Amino acid sequence: MSISITRENFDQWMLPVYAPAPFIPVRGEGSRLWDQQGKEYIDFAGGIAVNALGHAHPMLCKALSEQAAKFWHTGNGYTNEPVLKLAKRLLDATFADRAFFCNSGAEANEAALKLARKYAHDTAGPQKSGIVAFKNAFHGRTLFTVSAGGQPAYSQDFAPLPPEIRHAVYNDLASARELINDDTCAVIVEPIQGEGGVLPATTAFLQGLRELCDRHHALLIFDEVQTGVGRTGELYAYMHYGVTPDVLTTAKALGGGFPIGAMLTTETFGHVMNVGTHGTTYGGNPLAGAVAGAVLDIVNTRETLDGVKQRHQWLTEQLTALNNRYHLFSEIRGLGLLIGCQLATEHTGSAKQIAQLAATEGAMVLIAGANVVRFAPALNISEEEIRTGLARFARACEKFIAGSSS
Ligand SMILES: *Cc1c(COP(=O)(O)O)cnc(C)c1O
């Protein structure tokens, strides 16, 4: 059966939980993508901070196809070499002693929250079940993680929600202090709130959370699903801040586009989980293990990580120059290749429109809420791709200004 596919098919056949762009990408290379009509785009979206090495990276294609020709899956009744090699790489590179693999960020956070509850129940008793999270946080879409997330719009339709989760104000230590007590089993926080608008934590805030967790014997969980795997110019953002969590979750860029997530923790906390307490069919499968191993080999080098800092400079300098012309943004912020452009008040609510205009001009950008245009490109995007893409983005900004003043 041969059928010709159009964007309208999405609206006819798919559960309408997304509103995808009007074009359908069919091929990619590096930070360029082409749609069904052959139109070219520069990809500043990176599959939402996922495609760490761009599209069709030769080393990732090789890792995937070599493993694909060996075996794909056995289930967790058998372990495999690629996932064990990946675990060793992650443990050697971080504070952690133990790794659990799954398939997404939400699952990694789900595992982290379950581990925190079990550790507290085993060591202190059932009353120690409180979870403190933050307003505007995003931790995934399972019922537990969407409840931990701080955007009621994403969770309220699915009530009743898991209890004992409370939300403090991000970057406000006093508000966290009010909620964290001896009945708290975990504090979960993003070192940079990604979906919430690309808002970096202050060092004092993360240090303060570390102290509060130590005082009240609560686990500090860093959700590094968006900030991890080189995104900030360090392998994990906690290294940038110099504040070490008890549990770290990572996904998105870990597989460079192949689905994989992981929860990392120490021996002390890891040992409360035993055979049968948690699991997932596909978690730690050899395909994902092989691809993520290749991603880490390339990303966890000084060359790639310093390259992220260099690219941050190229992007922010050019965005600042562009903004001096168009005065769209009140702030350009973020670390490494996670950059948010906050719209000035007179352009409130226009992020989506600007992103759509950018796509029309041949540049893919993300939004983070209604008022932030977000850039999360591949860590190896070239200087030429940045220049070409931002020239297209500038044309979109010009059209937006022309349209909004007429
Ligand atoms: C994307 C994201 C998640 C959810 O990851 P999925 O793979 O979509 O489940 C969780 N936390 C943060 C910080 C994220 O950016």
Automatic annotation (TrEMBL):
<feature type="binding site">
    <location>
        <begin position="223"/>
        <end position="226"/>
    </location>
    <ligand>
        <name>pyridoxal 5'-phosphate</name>
    </ligand>
</feature>
<dbReference type="InterPro" id="IPR017652">
    <property type="entry name" value="Ac/SucOrn_transaminase_bac"/>
</dbReference>
<keyword id="KW-0028">Amino-acid biosynthesis</keyword>
<dbReference type="GO" id="GO:0009089">
    <property type="term" value="P:lysine biosynthetic process via diaminopimelate"/>
</dbReference>
<dbReference type="GO" id="GO:0006526">
    <property type="term" value="P:L-arginine biosynthetic process"/>
</dbReference>
<keyword id="KW-0032">Aminotransferase</keyword>
<feature type="modified residue" description="N6-(pyridoxal phosphate)lysine">
    <location>
        <position position="252"/>
    </location>
</feature>
<comment type="subunit">
    <text>Homodimer.</text>
</comment>
<keyword id="KW-0457">Lysine biosynthesis</keyword>
<dbReference type="GO" id="GO:0006527">
    <property type="term" value="P:L-arginine catabolic process"/>
</dbReference>
<feature type="binding site">
    <location>
        <begin position="105"/>
        <end position="106"/>
    </location>
    <ligand>
        <name>pyridoxal 5'-phosphate</name>
    </ligand>
</feature>
<keyword id="KW-0663">Pyridoxal phosphate</keyword>
<feature type="binding site">
    <location>
        <position position="138"/>
    </location>
    <ligand>
        <name>pyridoxal 5'-phosphate</name>
    </ligand>
</feature>
<dbReference type="GO" id="GO:0003992">
    <property type="term" value="F:N2-acetyl-L-ornithine:2-oxoglutarate 5-aminotransferase activity"/>
</dbReference>
<protein>
    <recommendedName>
        <fullName>Acetylornithine/succinyldiaminopimelate aminotransferase</fullName>
        <ecNumber>2.6.1.11</ecNumber>
        <ecNumber>2.6.1.17</ecNumber>
    </recommendedName>
</protein>
<dbReference type="GO" id="GO:0009016">
    <property type="term" value="F:succinyldiaminopimelate transaminase activity"/>
</dbReference>
<keyword id="KW-0963">Cytoplasm</keyword>
<dbReference type="InterPro" id="IPR005814">
    <property type="entry name" value="Aminotrans_3"/>
</dbReference>
<dbReference type="InterPro" id="IPR015422">
    <property type="entry name" value="PyrdxlP-dep_Trfase_small"/>
</dbReference>
<dbReference type="InterPro" id="IPR015424">
    <property type="entry name" value="PyrdxlP-dep_Trfase"/>
</dbReference>
<keyword id="KW-0808">Transferase</keyword>
<dbReference type="InterPro" id="IPR004636">
    <property type="entry name" value="AcOrn/SuccOrn_fam"/>
</dbReference>
<dbReference type="InterPro" id="IPR049704">
    <property type="entry name" value="Aminotrans_3_PPA_site"/>
</dbReference>
<dbReference type="InterPro" id="IPR050103">
    <property type="entry name" value="Class-III_PLP-dep_AT"/>
</dbReference>
<feature type="binding site">
    <location>
        <position position="280"/>
    </location>
    <ligand>
        <name>N(2)-acetyl-L-ornithine</name>
    </ligand>
</feature>
<dbReference type="GO" id="GO:0030170">
    <property type="term" value="F:pyridoxal phosphate binding"/>
</dbReference>
<comment type="pathway">
    <text>Amino-acid biosynthesis; L-arginine biosynthesis; N(2)-acetyl-L-ornithine from L-glutamate: step 4/4.</text>
</comment>
<dbReference type="GO" id="GO:0005737">
    <property type="term" value="C:cytoplasm"/>
</dbReference>
<feature type="binding site">
    <location>
        <position position="141"/>
    </location>
    <ligand>
        <name>N(2)-acetyl-L-ornithine</name>
    </ligand>
</feature>
<dbReference type="InterPro" id="IPR015421">
    <property type="entry name" value="PyrdxlP-dep_Trfase_major"/>
</dbReference>
<dbReference type="GO" id="GO:0042802">
    <property type="term" value="F:identical protein binding"/>
</dbReference>
<comment type="function">
    <text>Involved in both the arginine and lysine biosynthetic pathways.</text>
</comment>
<dbReference type="Pfam" id="PF00202">
    <property type="entry name" value="Aminotran_3"/>
</dbReference>
<keyword id="KW-0055">Arginine biosynthesis</keyword>
<feature type="binding site">
    <location>
        <position position="281"/>
    </location>
    <ligand>
        <name>pyridoxal 5'-phosphate</name>
    </ligand>
</feature>
<comment type="pathway">
    <text>Amino-acid biosynthesis; L-lysine biosynthesis via DAP pathway; LL-2,6-diaminopimelate from (S)-tetrahydrodipicolinate (succinylase route): step 2/3.</text>
</comment>
<comment type="similarity">
    <text>Belongs to the class-III pyridoxal-phosphate-dependent aminotransferase family. ArgD subfamily.</text>
</comment>
